[in-house]
Amino acid sequence: xxxxxxxxxxxxxxxxxxxxxxxxxxxxxxxxxxxxxxxxxxxxxxxxxxxxxxxxxxxxxxxxxxxxxxxxxxxxxxxxxxxxxxxxxxxxxxxxxxxxxxxxxxxxxxxxxxxxxxxxxxxxxxxxxxxxxxxxxxxxxxxxxxxxxxxx
Length: 152
Hints:
By secondary structure, the chain is α/β, with parallel strands linked by helices. It has one domain (1-41, 75-152): Nucleotidyltransferase, domain 5. Helix content is 34%, strand content 26%. It contains five helices and seven strands, in the order βββαββαβααβα. The strands form two sheets. A five-stranded mixed β-sheet has the order 3-2-1-6-7. α2 (75-96) crosses α3 (109-118). The protein is globular. The N and C termini lie close together (8 Å).
């Protein structure tokens, strides 16, 4: 990290495809004090627990006389897309109601990419930093340290 400055009252979004934290900086740039504002947790079991049917088959008799398997649905992946859209909508509401002027987004690469496509322009305009890291399983004190620590 490059000694990130988190403005007072900034919203820090920490999330992955299954959990999202909305943290508010009650401190200042020099001494951040992140407080939990909202937590989203999604029940998203692995695909093999969500879909019980075998992939279907398509008859290709008109072409080759054979049959071909249809790719199975990745329910886990679909749920992560839905979850990203859900938290993006919640962030849009926070921004539009004036409760966030500055936003810091912390997520692993895949989730960050999902969020970028899901964020409304109003949300994108408030983003002051994006951090490519998964910190959802860390306590808030550790998240503060990861965000504000100087170069290692």
